[in-house]
């Protein structure tokens, strides 16, 4: 068995898991100011992902840990090279987590407004930055002979990468809106559906331009054109099924489109994991990988555990499958900022 | 400051901060699970009240543990990329296993527990919190496997061609005796932390309720808070015994595996037969053995702690330095002399503060059990104060414990294993990323400010929810079928039992 290849594929799978799952919960966070007209509606939006966003985020930690274990050189180069974007992503994820958990803890308009901002910021920023980061990987970065990134921060902000950021943001907006159309009911469902249609058209245009650019300039193989086609067809199918009000199908196609984008990225860079502008210095699945022993151990662990994770995460979605309406949202359970003084103190 | 100093400060700040939340989560999740179990078994409402009360505090705390945990994983690659290249083959495996085997369970099942009160049958819902409780402890095991490997590398070999360490046995890494000394110590300390938290808050509330005069008629003070206090105290006693026992065996192992760390912890400035245990030592800040003066010490005790023999010989810092120089070189690449001893004052004092603060819980445990014996409810305001004062002590003990164990490892990031694996070691200075200092400085400032703000928010929320107290009325909302089939005819369309 070619273990580095298996792990290259497995890490692609982990990123598909992460971006498909957290993609829609990013989208929901991004849509709070767009679709949530009042506090109750915003709470409906947040609660559609309430029970699941934390589990979704672990896919990122697993992708990170798996890269560390299977491709230490890739992990080291990527994380030290993309220092500032990752720092911003970390800050965004931290305030977003606190936003979800702390927003409803205090029943005060200012308090919830601040945490709404944290969720919105924490959802938009990574949605853009993941696209910027992956587009830079596809494009190739300036590595030295020791595989250290020497390109500087501003080289990461090139047009191709910035368009990549726009693409992921639009994809997640679409994905989030489609998810909401599937998960809410009433007036919100109508608005989510309408927004999803617009977002899908915008995402199709932007992703189309980016994918053709990537294919023409950076991917030197033919089969990835098939993936571009799959992505294009899926996005058109989202537009069509969404317009027909087939929310379940629209969500499946939206997920397939994001998965196809990840396959395109990994397909474009293969057999590199981190292409360098000087090809001699590129990190490949061979020179970046761990020893066969480590990869064998990790393969057994992954084969045993990934299916179980998928089973219980799917079960979670099934338990919370009910559509949410504003009537389902209970009165705020948060406390007031200060304890009422009527109670005696010690 | 150069990249190395900045990177070390950043790692220290983010790690100590992360470990404020972690021990409480590791200990409190099982305690809440036990509370809920007793409720399911007995149907007694007071246990449901305790579950809800401490469950909310657990969640406020869990959020920050998760948020700061992501930083922990990312910064190995961001600021310690050369370390990551050297050890990734080994160190990455337990991290990936933690995510796959433990963290997925914690996050997914915690969501099911928070939102699932009216969606899952009672016993299934109970199983959710148990899954979280087991998984947080499993997380600790994998993370400590990674850390223990840095303290005492096993199951690895040095590859001359790649210049990296390679894994030879995952079994050795997961059965590392350093791990199996560190894990019980960390877990028992976490239970001590959580139990002190439960007992301290309950003590304060019991006294407060008793002083308003409603205690005698069997209401909240007696039923809920007295129960919480005694539950917490008994767990503290059991966990406290575990902390002492596991700490002692861990120290014995450290004398063998990291003699320099223990020599620094004891300010042993020359090799001694029947080494004394230092109660108070003063010294200069220049961090060498000259100028270190022992003021109070107990003869023979350190030797006894090291290997059970009052007269055994322990090596001092200068002798160990000479041995290390012979084995690992006198100078680094730049030609500077390498000091193989950690910062003596930090190591010495953090070791003592760890032990000293841990003792803070003991007073509360003994007072709490004595004052509530035979069904009594105490209105002693000193007990309430003691409860509040005791809460932070095990947190501080944990922090100083980690400062001790990590500073004591310096100047190594992967300490050499004197009893086996040859060649697998790395000086901390060589592990840092080759990046611009301003990058690390920026992130250090960003994290410090962000963490500072979040600490205030966390404290305010914990405080606010604590002074709100346990709910006066609780309702069993569990459905009979998975997915929230209604218990009553109109139940399915009513509002959710919990929503953000």
Question: Quick recap of the structure?
Answer:
The complex is a heterodimer of chains A (346) and B (500). Chain A is mainly alpha-helical and 346 residues long. In chain A, 73% of the residues lie in helices and 1% in strands.
Number of individual domains of chain A: 1
Number of strands of chain A: 2
Give the percentage of residues in beta strands of chain B.
5-15%
Sequence of secondary-structure elements of chain A:
HHHHHHHHHHEEH
Q: How are strands sequenced across the largest beta sheet of chain A?
A: 1-2
Biggest sheet architecture of chain B: 2 strands, antiparallel
- Class computed from helices, strands and strand pairing of chain A: mainly alpha
Could you give the count of β-strands of chain B? 8
**Helix fraction of chain B by DSSP (H/I, runs of at least 4):** 55-70%
Shape of chain A: globular
Structure write-up:
The complex is a heterodimer of chains A (346) and B (500). Chain A is mostly helical. In chain A, 73% of the residues lie in helices and 1% in strands. Chain A has helices at residues 3-35, 39-49, 53-70, 72-81, 83-102, 109-139, 159-183, 187-217, 223-243, 247-269, 292-319; strands at 272-274, 283-284. A two-stranded antiparallel sheet of chain A has the order 1-2. In chain A, a hairpin with an 8-residue loop joins strand 1 (272-274) and strand 2 (283-284). The termini of chain A are far apart. Chain B has a two-stranded antiparallel sheet with strand order 1-2. In chain B, helix 7 (220-257) packs across helix 8. The longest helix of chain B is centred in the first third of the chain and has 40 residues, at 3-42. Chains A and B meet through helix 2, helix 3, helix 4, helix 5 and helix 11 of A and helix 2, helix 3, strand 2, helix 6 and helix 14 of B.
């Amino acid at each position: 068995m070619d273990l580095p290849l298996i792990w290259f594929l497995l890490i692609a799978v982990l990123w598909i898991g992460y971006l498909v799952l957290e993609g829609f919960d990013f989208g929901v966070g991004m849509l709070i100011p767009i679709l949530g007209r009042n506090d109750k509606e915003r709470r409906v939006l947040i609660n559609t992902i309430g029970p699941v966003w934390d589990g979704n985020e672990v896919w990122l930690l697993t992708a990170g840990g798996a890269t560390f274990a299977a491709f230490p050189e890739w992990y080291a180069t990527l994380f030290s090279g993309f220092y500032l974007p990752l720092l911003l992503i970390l800050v965004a994820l931290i305030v977003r987590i606190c936003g979800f958990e702390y927003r409803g803890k205090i029943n005060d308009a200012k308090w919830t407004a601040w945490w709404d901002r944290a969720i919105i910021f924490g959802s938009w920023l990574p949605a853009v930055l993941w696209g910027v980061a992956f587009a830079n990987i596809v494009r190739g970065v300036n590595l030295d002979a020791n595989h250290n990134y020497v390109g500087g921060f501003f080289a990461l902000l090139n047009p191709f990468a910035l368009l990549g950021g726009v693409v992921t943001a639009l994809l997640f907006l679409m994905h989030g809106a489609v998810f909401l159309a599937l998960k809410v009911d009433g007036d919100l469902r109508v608005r989510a559906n309408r927004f999803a249609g617009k977002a899908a058209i915008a995402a199709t245009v932007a992703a189309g331009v980016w994918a053709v650019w990537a294919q023409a300039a950076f991917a030197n193989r033919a089969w990835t054109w098939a993936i571009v086609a799959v992505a294009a067809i899926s996005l058109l199918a989202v537009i069509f099924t969404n317009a027909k009000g087939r929310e379940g199908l629209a969500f499946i196609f939206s997920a397939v489109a994001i998965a196809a984008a990840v396959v395109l990225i990994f397909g474009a860079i293969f057999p590199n994991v981190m292409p360098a502008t000087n090809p001699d210095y590129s990190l490949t699945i061979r020179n970046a990988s761990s020893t066969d022993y480590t990869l064998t151990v990790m393969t057994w662990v992954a084969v045993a555990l990934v299916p179980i994770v998928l089973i219980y995460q799917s079960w979670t979605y099934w338990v919370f499958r009910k559509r949410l309406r504003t009537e389902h949202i209970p009165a705020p359970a948060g406390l007031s900022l200060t304890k009422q003084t009527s109670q005696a103190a010690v | 400051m150069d990249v190395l100093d900045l990177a070390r400060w950043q790692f220290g700040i983010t790690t100590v901060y992360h470990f404020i939340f972690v021990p409480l989560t590791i200990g409190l999740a099982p305690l809440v699970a036990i509370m809920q179990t007793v409720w399911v078994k007995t149907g007694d409402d007071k246990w449901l009240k305790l579950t809800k009360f401490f469950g909310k505090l657990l969640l406020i705390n869990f959020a920050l543990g998760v948020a700061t945990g992501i930083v922990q994983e990312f910064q190995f690659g961001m600021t310690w990329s050369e370390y990551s290249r050297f050890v990734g083959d080994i160190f990455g495996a337990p991290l990936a296993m933690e995510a796959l085997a433990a963290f997925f369970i914690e996050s997914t099942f915690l969501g099911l527990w928070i939102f699932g009160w009216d969606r899952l049958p009672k016993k299934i819902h109970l199983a959710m919190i148990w899954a979280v409780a087991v998984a947080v402890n499993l997380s600790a095991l994998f993370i400590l496997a990674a850390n223990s490997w840095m303290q005492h590398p096993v199951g690895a070999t040095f590859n001359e061609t790649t210049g990296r360490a390679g894994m030879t046995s995952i079994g050795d890494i997961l059965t590392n005796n350093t791990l199996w000394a560190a894990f019980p110590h960390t877990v028992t300390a976490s239970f001590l932390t959580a139990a002190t938290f439960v007992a301290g808050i309950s003590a304060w509330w019991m006294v407060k309720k008793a002083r308003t005069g409603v205690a005698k008629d069997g209401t909240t003070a007696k039923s809920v808070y007295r129960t919480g206090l005694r539950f917490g105290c008994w767990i503290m006693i059991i966990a406290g015994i575990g902390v002492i026992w596991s700490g002692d065996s861990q120290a014995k192992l450290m004398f063998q595996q990291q003699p320099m760390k223990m020599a620094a912890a004891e300010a042993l400035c020359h090799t001694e037969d029947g080494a004394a245990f230092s109660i108070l030592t003063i010294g200069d800040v220049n961090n060498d053995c000259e100028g270190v003066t022992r003021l109070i010490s107990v003869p023979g005790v350190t030797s006894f702690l090291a290997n059970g023999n009052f007269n055994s010989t322990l090596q001092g810092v200068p002798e160990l330095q000479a041995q290390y120089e012979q084995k690992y070189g006198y100078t680094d690449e730049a030609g500077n002399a390498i000091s193989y001893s950690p910062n003596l004052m930090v190591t010495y004092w953090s070791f003592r503060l760890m032990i000293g603060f841990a003792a803070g819980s003991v007073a509360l445990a003994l007072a709490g059990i004595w004052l509530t014996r035979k069904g009594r409810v105490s209105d002693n305001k000193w007990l309430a104060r003691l409860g509040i004062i005791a809460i932070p002590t095990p947190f501080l003990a944990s922090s100083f414990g980690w400062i001790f164990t990590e500073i004591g490892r310096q100047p190594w990031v992967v300490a050499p294993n004197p009893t086996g694996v040859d060649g697998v070691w790395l000086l901390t200075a060589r592990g840092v990323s080759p990046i611009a200092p301003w990058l690390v400085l920026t992130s250090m400032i960003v994290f410090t400010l962000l963490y500072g703000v979040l600490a205030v928010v966390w404290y305010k929320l914990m405080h606010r929810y604590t002074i709100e107290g346990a709910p006066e009325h609780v309702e069993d909302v569990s459905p009979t079928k998975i997915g929230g089939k209604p218990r009553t005819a109109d139940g399915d369309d009513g509002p959710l039992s919990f929503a953000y």
